[in-house]
Amino acid sequence: MRRFSLCALALPALALMATGCGESREPEFETLKAEPTEPQVEPLSIELDDPEPAPRPEFTMILPGPDQKDPKSLLSYWSAAVEAGDVDAARRAWRKEVRTGGTAPRWANLSNITVTSQDGRMEGAAGSLYYSMPIMLRGQSIDDTDVELAGTMTLRRANDVPGANADELSWRIESIDWDG
User: Fold this and answer.
1) Which of 42, 49, 125, 130 is 20 to 30 A from residue 76's alpha carbon, by CA?
2) Could you say which DSSP state residue 51 is in?
């Protein structure tokens, strides 16, 4: 019987100890798993000092033909094409042999271009007329640097030679010799 009473006493003591084993005196903290989130970035509002560049004017002029005897009509056409940024139209102002050239003109990457010229001089030689004049292009490069291109433009046309075609009888750019 004694054995029974020891077991009877030991069992409740063990049960009491077992309930206290899991307890600790330090508070338990619940572990929260944070969901990964994208960092929130507020868009910056930046005001630029310079307004957007004005759009280039649309080029609508017609290439002067053999009925235009004044070389300045071709200069006006070419200048307007350059200022409008129309490389193809400006290329049509050149002699037929040069029109299909594969390189971009020196002004192709400029913006806000203005073309100015001075009066030139007319010369005649071997059935052709030549008109040479100083020209200047001013514009801005991609990095907003001011650029000036100065040189001499020479125009040429056939001097009413029998058998000349319309292109030969029209003023066309023979060359532009850029300074520097």
Assistant:
1) 125
2) P
- What pLDDT, on the 0 to 100 scale, is given for residue 4? 46
Kindly provide the residue ranges of all beta strands, DSSP E only, lying in the chain, ordered along the sequence.
111-117, 121-125, 128-140, 146-158, 172-178
Q: Tell me the CA distances in angstroms from 162 to 64, 94, 101, 166, one per residue in order.
A: 20, 22, 29, 11
Residue 63: CA atoms inside 13 Å, Cβ hemisphere, count? 18
Cα–Cα dist 95/170, whole Å: 9
pLDDT along the chain (180 residues), means of 10: 46 48 52 57 62 66 94 95 90 80 74 94 92 96 92 93 91 90
Structural domains for the chain: 71-178 (3.10.450.50)
Whether pTM exceeds 0.70? no
Gap between the Cα atoms of 72 and 93, Å rounded: 12
pLDDT (0 to 100) of residue 26: 56
- Tell the burial category of 61 from Cβ atoms under 10 Å away from its Cβ (0-12, 13-18, 19+): middle
